[in-house]
Write a structure and sequence with these properties.
mainly alpha
Length: 562
């Protein structure tokens, strides 16, 4: 189909129009075939435009094709259209309809049909998505995936596709190593010019990303983009993992690359997919503000966020997620440019996000944003703290967002002058949460120490400050961060923290410890450099050939950071 290759809307329109003419002119004998062709063309155009009318027309045409005695391809078309409707609505009714249609395909397919493995894999993939939404059916999905892989063993093209889908299910099941292995097997079974290869590379990148191997994930996603430059999804995945790596390492070059990739993904996407990339673009713009303090970035992020929400109808299941994202920008603007924000509209949007959130984690995020919006109204601080406390309760221990939510709760408790002990406890829990970001934990540790100093005197806070300097400050400049970015990060944290810690130590009559804390804050980077050189010295003494190569790489990195 020309439209599938060109991706031009005019070609999709022409395909639909030609299919409608065929249905209108072809006799009863071939009517089922014509209807199935129309259903397929409408599905293709829906995937290009996300127009609901095309999806529902495709389902109607597919049902008519089946009723007219259509062959197995008509059944498979109908099942695919119903699966698309479930992905659009995420309702149990539509999930059940899609599962039943897929089951009918498997029941009616004759023995030995060459599409058997594909039908098994499609149904397994649908059940995987049902599990993602409702938490049921994953075991059945994994079983079907295994059967599909076995059924396609003698067909290299189908084998690669079934392995790809199986990898997706394994990743959903949390079996990350097995998911990476399945994707690698699929990749090994394809040629460089195989049309499915970019999708396999992208799935391999997703597995590596989940495994924490961000550098390898970037390489995989970049290869997918190189193989299929016009695919917005691959560019979006690349931008997402680059942003993940920026958050982990702090390298601004990764932030720049992420912004370029996400921008190009948004330009090539439509409907809900485009909304996802615009939301990521807004997050990157907020990060620009965090780095620079320039409120212009926030205004741009708000404009992008409003476009994101406008792309989705009120009943779209992803709308609440995007509302939460926009509210993150609104909350910052309330601090730095309140005249540009309608607080009443912001509260209404936050309550809509809470009401329509798809799961507990998203509802927690919406509750936090609602609390932050209400925080600007002093008489409602207790209400704001209540919403934030409810958000913390929704997150299980080990959630990476829990530390930040606890920090928000501690701040609200302090501002409402409710209970200093409860505020200190929340700061302490945030600081001690080992799954939280290092910057959040360090800020919480510093606030805990400040609060102790205010309530019980500087000497009582000395140990808390000392812990922050010795245990948490080095985490901001761990060896994976580029030297230039290490210096930038430490400039914003180390100086005041170390001087506050030293002042409290002096008040506690621990002058030697005060000097040590100042030196510790000053020498974090120097200590890292010494650690690196000690490691190389040990390798050289052991006669390892890796030492010389590492020295060359270190010299190149040092040169790049100048």
């Amino acid at each position: 189909m020309r439209a599938s290759r060109s991706r031009r809307l005019a070609d999709f329109d022409e395909a639909v129009e030609l299919s409608r003419r065929a249905v209108a002119t072809i006799g009863d004998r071939h009517q089922a075939t014509a209807l199935a062709g129309l259903a397929g063309a409408l599905q293709e155009r829906y995937l290009r435009t996300s127009e609901d009318t095309d999806l529902y027309d495709a389902i109607e045409a597919g049902r008519a094709a089946v009723a007219a005695g259509g062959d197995m391809s008509a059944w498979m078309n109908l099942a695919a259209a119903l699966a698309l409707r479930f992905r659009r609505t995420e309702t149990r009714v539509d999930a059940d309809a899609a599962v039943v249609a897929g089951h009918q395909v498997l029941v009616n397919m004759p023995s030995g049909d060459p599409d058997w493995a594909t039908a098994l894999s499609n149904q397994a993939l649908l059940l995987t998505e049902v599990h993602r939404r409702f938490g049921t059916g994953l075991d059945a999905a994994l079983d079907l995936h295994r059967r599909a892989v076995e059924a396609a063993a003698d067909d290299s093209a189908r084998h690669a596709i079934t392995l790809l889908n199986w990898s997706m299910a394994l990743l959903e099941a949390g079996e990350v190593a097995a998911a990476v292995e399945a994707a690698a097997r699929a990749l090994a079974g394809t040629r460089e010019d195989d049309p499915i290869r970019p999708a396999i590379l992208s799935q391999l990148g997703s597995g590596l990303r989940a495994y924490g191997q961000l550098d390898d994930a970037v390489v995989a996603f970049q290869a997918a983009v190189t193989s299929d430059p016009g695919n917005a999804g691959y560019r979006g995945n690349l931008g997402s993992v680059l942003y993940d790596r920026f958050k982990l390492y702090g390298a601004v070059a990764d932030l720049d690359a992420a912004e370029r990739a996400i921008g190009r993904a948004a330009a090539g996407a439509y409907g809900a997919e485009r909304a996802r990339y615009l939301a990521q673009a807004g997050t990157i713009l907020r990060t620009r503000f965090d780095l620079s303090g320039d409120v212009t970035w926030l205004r741009r992020a708000l404009a992008v966020g409003e476009r994101t929400v406008d792309l989705l109808p009120p009943d779209h299941p992803e709308r609440a997620d995007h509302l939460v994202n926009v509210l993150g920008t609104v909350v910052r603007l309330l601090d730095y440019d309140p005249a540009g924000v309608d607080a009443v509209l912001a509260e209404s949007a936050a309550r809509e996000a809470v009401r329509t959130a798809r799961n507990a984690a998203r509802r927690a995020a919406a509750l936090v944003q609602l609390g932050q919006v209400l925080r600007r109204d002093s008489p409602r601080l207790a209400e704001a703290a209540g919403h934030t406390r409810a958000a913390v309760a929704l997150l299980p221990p080990g959630s990476p967002d829990r530390a930040a939510y606890l920090a928000n709760l501690a701040r609200l408790i302090e501002e409402s002058a409710a209970d200093p002990t409860a505020a200190a406890a929340a700061w302490a829990e945030a600081a001690d949460d080992t799954t939280g970001p290092a910057a959040v934990r360090l800020a919480a540790a510093r606030e805990r120490a400040r609060l102790v100093a205010e309530r019980r005197g500087p000497a009582a806070a000395a140990d808390h400050y000392g812990t922050a300097v010795r245990d948490l400050l080095p985490l901001l400049a761990w060896p994976g961060v580029y030297p230039a970015d290490q210096r930038r990060i430490l400039r914003s944290h180390a100086y005041l923290l170390a001087t506050d810690a030293a002042a409290c130590a002096i008040d506690a009559h621990c002058r030697v410890e005060a000097v040590e804390l100042l030196e510790h804050g000053r020498a974090v980077l120097w200590g890292r450099m010494l650690d690196d050189r000690r490691t190389l010295a040990a390798l050289s003494a052991a006669g390892s050939p890796v030492a010389a190569r590492l020295r060359r790489i270190r010299a190149e990195l040092d040169q790049d950071s100048q």
